[in-house]
Design goal:
heterodimer; A: 367 residues; mainly alpha; MetI-like fold; 15 helices; 76% helix; flat; B: 328 residues; 2 domains
Chain lengths: 367, 328
Amino acid sequence: MSSALLKTRRSQLTKGRLPGYAIWVVLGAAVVLAAAVSALIGFDVVVWALIAAVFFVVGATLVTAAAEGSRKAADSLMTYLVYGSFVIALLPLLSVIWTVLERGLPGLSYDFFFTSMNGVTGATDNASAENGTPVLGGAYHAIVGTLQITLWASLVSVPIGLLAAVYLVEYGRGGALDRAITFFVDVMTGIPSIVAGLFAAALFALLFGPGTRTGFVASVALSVLMIPVVVRSTEEMLKIVPNELREASYALGVRKWRTIVKVVVPTAISGIASGVTLAIARVVGETAPILVTAGFASSINLNVFGGWMSTLPTFIYYQILTPTSPTNIDASTQRAWAAALILIIMVMLLNVVARLVAKIFAPRTSR
Amino acid sequence: MTSVPGAQRRTSDPKGFPVSTSTLTSRDAAGKSGDRVFSGAALGAGILILVVLFGVAVFLIIQALPVLGADPADITGGDGFGAYIFPIVVGTVIAAAIALLLATPLGIGVALFISHYAPRRLAMTFGYLVDLLAAIPSVVYGAWGYAVLAPQLAVAYGWLAENLGWIPIFAGPASQTGKTILTAGIVLAVMVLPIITSLSREIFLQTPTLHEEAALAMGATRLEMIWMAVLPFARTGIVSAAMLGLGRALGETMAVALVLSGGALTASLIQSGNQTIAAEIALNFPEAYGLRLSELIAAGLVLFVITLVVNIIARWIVSRHRDFSGAN
């Protein structure tokens, strides 16, 4: 008697709901139907997947609507759309990483890392294509340029950014100046990178005559992009340093600047360091400001204050847009993708380092 | 100079206690100047930021000035600066609009997936994956769009021109290489997506749990809960996220410079043609000199003003939202 009651109750609760397997039936039907339709219009895996997805979403929604009502149907439609949007968002990521790995790995060699494009001409590329010999020329000059320009940009922007953040958090009292700085730092985060490049170019053109293009001009351009990021992240980190630490230090008679240097900043150093690393990761991949400020070099230039320089992003850009040999563009394409792989690895490494720094040096607070 | 009055005060201290007082005051003087130097440096750094931003505007204006006085016939195109800048402003807006139209719904969907749909344990990892999209340099996106996406889309464009060619934006003949403004817009959408996603995700996660639970307790489905509790709360946040994404899309250079084979302004999105300000500058700056240089800098100034306005509006919305959620 009681078991029969339980049984009816369970069926009462699940009455009007689709059984769990229904969704898989719809999925199977959608895949088969899509295969049929795509075979009609010329078979292609991408088209097949697209049609199957559309069939499944429409079919599953209709089936749910018939069995469970329109509210449930709308809910499940939303669920499919949300899951679908995530899958769509991942596609370009996977495609980019796959492309860079597939096309970049063959170009990576010892020579690629340690030779420049000096003396590599269209004839060299034609010869290597005809004879089947390895592609000559490498990205050494671009790697060195990237490191140097980024280093100088960091040297300029990290002190300024740190001090400005210290001012905002420790000295600012919310006056007009503080609000102006906060506001314009926010605005600066939105400056298009090419405008930052134009600014540096215009500044140095006024100071040292038109056409001044050196690595340092590029560093200044990158600093404009980097400073707001450094200020923002440092500010956030300084704000979460507990006030008790500052007060304890003041109570011992320690000067404010000593308190900041010895107590506040060391407490927040993990977050600050990871913020700075992320800022560097952001500017390492910038192309547009370098294009208009550092020119383009094919040989090694170690002097940031004189002569044109090349960086990995501009190297990629020029190798693709103006191949060294217009008739055999494969050599240039291969170099470009190999450089792209190095660049992505650099950026990813910086991101990982930032996360590790934040984790390892995190302050041990009681909270 | 500053140490002299301190030294005098130390020797002429009327109260006595020569040893202890003098050591205290001498420390004091050293500490005081340290304090002054440090706070001065911090203040200076803050002011320097304002000066830099001001400098960006001033130097661009100075370098762009020759354009105003120039003979209209000397400007590229031969019809003055207005006729030169108008098509590329429109092109910039078209590309950014395409990017935003694609990325906003998708970004909201992804953000909802991470905040409300994905299994809790995996949500962090998924969020990190989407953030990786932001870590890829723009030139790599450009190269990807150039080498992978454009050839794929060329096929689709051919189909669009054949079947939907009567709509002006899909008018044929379609580009054979696929290097069109629509491709550029799609690449931009991919680049803007992580910005919109991460900002909306933050705001979705801030939705008061009580509101959500109240909606669910009334028998709302998950969609209805999101519709009634999450989206109204996050509306301003989504708008500002989209605005910040717009700012990025307007100023993005490399993706467009590599992906789009530019040209005159055309209504069709699937033909080659159109150009954006940023790409125009990047493509022409290295060889430019004289008046052409001023032209490009003036174009950069226009871009600067446009993105500045967009960003200020976005920040304004964010700050209003901050007050609102603080009061909650």
